[in-house]
């Protein structure tokens, strides 16, 4: 049913049905990890930004944490540098680290801020290097300047929320020697959400969520607790690229986030489906399973 084809009374009914969810999320901090195809597809990007602004306007304290792997790969190609990956992580020498900083903290971050503002939002872009928001050390000597987070300073994000901005955080880190680190966006979002004791962490990915059968999109698991997640690691249900994503969910929960959602960012308005409807979207990971959406 398209919104243009419904009556004003039906429109009003849709809005009133969202009321309990608006009340639940009002004044709460929600960290959104944004990347993948939802960032590449221009129409989807427009819709995600509109959803974020709507959530902001109804009183949700949205923090947008973004990656940008495909755009980093494209820029490296342009300068004639091949991307090399080890265990799914980009090998980052000093030249690649400069490109990561330029693309994430520059082009992508500022374009997202600009898009939010064009659509009527109030946004401010910051990177993990600002006020040492993300401090890091080398994760593995084989990976070069790929960072393992050692500390996060979320005060700048709280300051922006206090002044009614939507903080847009690019995931580059630093150390006390001035080195720049490439930080996995899922990991950064988990640490930031944990440090802020966020009400929700929502990870927008390129799959529907956790599937019992990775080749069957109808086998979506709508909700699991941390105990079940560990069993799914052991039996191989959670495998491949889903392993680090679920590990980040567990990391966030261990740091105080009550619920983490992994969902398909390619679905139009998936953010609103998750936050403002009974249906929800994707897989919710909780410390202990309950009935609350």
Question: If you had to describe this structure to a student in words, what would you say it looks like?
Answer:
The structure is a single chain. By secondary structure, the protein is α/β, with parallel strands linked by helices. It has a single domain, classed as Carbamate kinase (3-Layer(aba) Sandwich). Strand 6 and strand 7 form a beta hairpin. The protein is globular and about 60 Å long. The mean pLDDT is 88.
Write the layout of secondary structure elements.
Elements: H1 8-25, E1 29-34, H2 37-40, H3 42-57, E2 61-66, H4 69-78, E3 85-86, E4 89-90, H5 94-118, E5 123-127, E6 134-138, E7 147-152, H6 155-162, E8 166-170, E9 172-174, E10 180-182, H7 185-195, E11 200-205, E12 223-225, H8 226-234, H9 242-254, E13 259-264, H10 270-276, E14 283-286
Parallel strand pairs: 1-2, 1-11, 2-8, 5-8, 11-13, 12-14
Antiparallel strand pairs: 3-4, 6-7, 9-10, 13-14
- The strand count comes to 14
Tell me the name of the CATH class.
Answer: Alpha Beta
Average of per-residue pLDDT values: 88
Assembly of the depicted chains: single chain
The best one-word shape is globular
- Please give the alpha-carbon distance between the first and last residues: 24 Å
Give the total of domains. 1
What share of residues are in beta strands? 15-25%
**Spatial sequence of strands, sheet with the most strands:** 5-8-2-1-11-13-14-12
CATH architecture: 3-Layer(aba) Sandwich
- Spans with pLDDT under 50 lasting ≥5 residues? none
Q: Round the Cα radius of gyration to an integer and report it.
A: 19 Å
